[in-house]
Design a protein that fits this description.
Chain lengths: 409, 151
């Protein structure tokens, strides 16, 4: 039983990190607009995050050092600071979107305007971080997020033409009426959403918080190989549901409520309840991760004492950063800024910052001084190198594509 | 000096993004106006179809009242936003004016019907939604024809 609950860090990371409001909306929107022809971008993102999250977890377990600790050392103070500024900004944007996402999810059940729920959502996020044990937090929100499996069940219940869906996915093409730049802009959005840097900040810092050692490398692999592919499956299910229901009817998806409609049509009220529970768990989980990641990145860069498990008196600056980040997210959220737009920008902009996060992990994962015999293998290095090249290409293409397509509009 | 250059570059990039990502630009020719009309029709069609789907789910007892109400309210808002953005565009010639009249009539009809659905949903009258949504099928078909004719 202990081993089963041991993989909940990966499940929470996947539920809150992989399947967050950005993924829910991005996958539903691309399914509605491009059918399954962008499924490859999700699969590519899953492989990428598996490769680098495994590395980050291994580095954390063996060297006891989390990602931003390594970033600062390997990139130097100046480049590290650029990375910190970019990562903190993107993580903050994501936190704003996630807190609003929790409120939007609750709105679906209450019909009370989401702006009224935002302060409550922010307060609950802070309370959970302040009072709830790390392992309880992982278990509760990771397992609650599993309610989103209803989305996968719904795809089966909709009785789609499987060969048609598979054909769309295996023969990717730009649908008529869509431009090639827009197609690749959305591919980058899906890839960026899958490989969002805060996922590895949280995962590696969580491994340090849970005091993982070499003995936990198996647990690290189990977390990564179970959690992220599960997140990928749910993302593809969201995309497939949209491809079945919305794509033939020329419906565009740009709200969270629409993402729940295919499941509602297929399963009814039970499915709708499960999806909303899943949305709450995933967005709340992501809000916890991003709020903690704000504290982790800043504290690790400046060498402050950090950790949710460390008494607030001993890690005052870490806890203050987390609290201020949440307050900021609430204040920005209640201005009625469109949370879906914030998410879209955050996932696309995060794609531009990916190499700066993943390159230092790659370097340290090959350093025998830190890793001893647990350095990367040949196949892993080959795969990681290919991804690093891809990350650089994606980073260079992001802003021009954003401008050329008017952010995919 | 290097810091100043970096600062200028960041500000220039931010300014480029703000200008380039502006959602609405004026339409100075008929072709540009027609493209915007088509985009508006597509956006409204999307909201109309969403309203039809959720009405179907509601009458079949497959969705909770608050969820139906939120979705219909969002559809109504989306149609209203698309309509007001399009209404703010100056038609460059008489031909564009005709296009404007045609689309405005369609969008207005769609907005009115979705608004009625939202009112019924808020009153908890979910069982009548599918019947009330029937005229939306015609609006959707006309919007589809419009987008095909001006695509």
């Amino acid at each position: 039983m202990k081993k089963i609950f041991g993989v909940t860090l990966g499940i929470l990371t996947a539920m809150g990190g992989f399947v967050d409001i950005g993924d829910i909306v991005a996958n539903s929107a691309t399914g509605a607009r491009f059918g399954m022809s962008l499924a490859w971008a999700v699969i590519l993102g899953v492989v990428g995050i598996v490769v680098f999250a495994e590395m980050a977890g291994r580095v954390a377990s063996v060297s006891k050092r989390a990602v931003f600790d390594v970033v600062r050392e390997r990139l130097g103070a100046r480049v590290g600071m650029v990375n910190l500024a970019a990562s903190f900004f993107i993580t903050m944007l994501t936190l704003i979107a996630e807190v609003a996402g929790v409120a939007l999810s609750v709105q679906l059940l209450t019909d009370v305007n989401y702006l009224l729920w935002i302060p409550l959502a922010g307060m609950l996020v802070w309370l959970v971080i302040w009072r709830v044990k790390f392992t309880s937090m992982e278990t509760v929100f990771g397992l609650m997020g599993l309610a989103l499996i209803a989305v996968t069940v719904a795809v089966v219940q909709l009785h789609p033409s499987w060969s048609g869906l598979f054909h769309q996915a295996s023969h990717p093409s730009v649908p008529s009426g869509e431009g090639t730049p827009t197609y690749f802009y959305y591919a980058i959005a899906l890839f960026g959403a899958a490989m969002t840097p805060y996922e590895v900040f949280f995962f590696s810092s969580g491994a340090v918080e849970e005091k993982w050692t070499r003995a936990d490398l198996g647990l690290n692999r189990a977390n990564v190989f179970l959690g992220f592919p599960l997140g990928g499956l749910l993302s593809l299910s969201l995309m497939a549901g949209s491809a079945i229901v919305f794509f033939p009817r020329s419906v565009g998806v740009d709200t969270l409520s629409q993402a729940a409609l295919p499941t509602t049509l297929a399963i009814g009220k039970v499915g709708l309840a499960a999806v909303i529970l899943g949305f709450v768990a995933c967005t709340f989980g992501a809000a916890l991760e991003t709020a903690l990641s704000c504290g982790y990145t800043l504290s690790q860069y400046f060498g402050w004492q950090w950790g949710k498990l460390v008494a607030p008196r001993e890690a005052a600056r870490f806890h203050l950063t987390v609290l201020c980040s949440i307050v900021m997210a609430v204040l920005v959220g209640v201005t009625a800024i469109d949370p879906i737009k914030v998410t879209e920008y955050s996932i696309v902009l995060s794609a531009a910052a990916l190499p700066l996060t993943y390159f230092p992990i790659f370097v340290v994962a090959n350093d025998r001084t830190y890793m001893g015999d647990d350095v990367n293998g040949g196949f892993q290095n080959m795969l990681a190198s290919a991804f690093l090249i891809l990350l650089v290409v994606v980073a260079l293409a992001t802003i021009p594509l954003m401008i050329a397509t008017k952010a995919g509009s | 000096m290097r810091r100043l250059v970096l600062f200028i570059l960041v500000v220039a990039l931010a300014a480029t993004l703000v200008v380039a990502l502006r959602p609405s630009t004026p339409a100075r020719t008929f072709d540009a106006y027609e493209l915007k009309a088509k985009d508006t029709a597509e956006s409204v069609l999307s909201s109309v179809q969403t309203a039809r789907l959720v009405s179907h789910a509601a009458t079949g007892g497959r969705a909770f009242g608050p969820y139906v109400s939120v979705m219909l309210s969002e559809s109504e808002t989306a149609i209203g936003e698309a309509s007001s953005t399009f209404a703010g565009l100056q038609p460059p010639d008489d031909r564009a004016g005709g296009l404007r009249d045609e689309l405005t009539r369609l969008v207005g009809r769609g907005e009115e019907l979705v608004s009625q659905l939202r009112i019924s949903a808020r009153r908890g009258e979910l069982s009548v939604l599918q019947r009330q949504a029937k005229p939306l099928a015609r609006v959707a078909a006309e919007l589809e024809r419009f987008t095909e004719a001006h695509g």
